[in-house]
């Protein structure tokens, strides 16, 4: 049985004015294109095809909001590899991120990172978006592609890069590794009252 049986697509936003009302709780999902973000969202929410909405033409550059339960949302951000250059990035992407990051309802960020790459120096931009009261959880996806020893290594190096600013876990939608842990984290954040 799904933990989020009533999950459904809410709306797509191209500008902060189109965001849903800033009430309740929400968690943002962000990652480079192809990191496995859509697959992870579908596995966590247990609704196959839910995040496919974010991949439909015309929606790939938008922020896509899904309601998991009344007043509990996730926000699927565009893969941040899409911007052609720093200028386009600044113009279209930054204002959206900045507005999202300052919402009262934003409890935290799930960073989706390919486990074969790991979270590295240079990924700080991601963690810098998060306000001090917002949490960070890193999913090292496609962990099925690594053996146990390499999995342990990337977990350790990614934790070192995070330097206590967030938590990190191995995840594989294919092998169903870490799905439960990710669900629990998401659920706890969505239930938590602000700054608790
Ligand atoms: P997104 O662009 O970050 O949303 O990435 P997708 O979810 O579309 O996944 C990108 C590619 O990685 C697809 O070919 C997926 O089938 C593959 N992929 C995603 N998750 C996993 C996983 O857990 N294991 C493996 N082996 N492949 C995965």
Global outline: globular
| CATH fold-level assignment | Rossmann fold
The chain-level mean pLDDT equals: 89
Task: Compute the number of structural domains.
Answer: 1
Tally of helical runs: 5
Computed structural class: alpha/beta
- Compressed to H and E, one letter per element, the order equals EEHEEHEHEHEH
Write out the CATH superfamily name: P-loop containing nucleotide triphosphate hydrolases
Strand arrangement within the widest β-sheet reads 1-3-4-2-5-6-7
**Low-pLDDT segments:** none
Bound ligands: guanosine-5'-diphosphate
Q: Which percent range fits the helix content?
A: 25-40%
The span between the termini is 28 Å
Described by strand count, sense and barrel closure, the largest sheet is: 7 strands, mixed
CATH C-level class is Alpha Beta
Beta-strand content estimate: 15-25%
Round the Cα radius of gyration to an integer and report it.
Answer: 16 Å
Q: Give the strand tally.
A: 7
CATH architecture: 3-Layer(aba) Sandwich
Task: Chart the SSEs and their pairings.
Blueprint: E1 8-13, E2 25-31, H1 37-45, E3 63-69, E4 72-76, H2 86-101, E5 106-114, H3 124-129, E6 135-141, H4 148-162, E7 167-170, H5 179-191
Parallel strand pairs: 2-4, 2-5, 5-6, 6-7
Antiparallel strand pairs: 1-3, 3-4
Helix pairs in contact: 1-5
Residues 31, 33-39, 79, 141-142, 144-145, 172-174 line the site of guanosine-5'-diphosphate.
């Amino acid at each position: 049985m799904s933990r989020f049986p009533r999950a459904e697509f809410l709306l797509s936003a191209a500008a902060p004015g189109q965001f849903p009302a800033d009430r309740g709780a929400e968690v943002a999902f962000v990652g480079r294109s192809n990191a496995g973000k859509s697959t992870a969202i579908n596995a966590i929410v247990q609704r196959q095809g839910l995040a496919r909405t974010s991949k439909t033409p015309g929606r790939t550059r938008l922020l896509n909001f899904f309601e998991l339960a009344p007043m509990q949302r996730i926000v699927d951000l565009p893969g941040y590899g899409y911007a052609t250059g720093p200028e386009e990035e600044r113009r279209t992407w930054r204002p959206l991120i900045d507005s999202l990051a300052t919402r009262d309802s934003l409890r935290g960020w799930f960073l989706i990172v390919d486990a074969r790459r790991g979270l590295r120096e240079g990924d700080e931009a991601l963690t810098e978006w998060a306000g001090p009261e917002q949490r960070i959880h890193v999913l090292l996806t496609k962990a099925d592609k690594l053996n146990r020893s390499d999995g342990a290594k990337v977990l350790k190096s990614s934790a070192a890069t995070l330097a206590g600013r967030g938590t990190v876990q191995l995840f594989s939608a294919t092998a169903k590794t870490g799905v439960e842990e990710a669900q629990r984290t998401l659920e706890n954040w969505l239930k938590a009252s602000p700054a608790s």
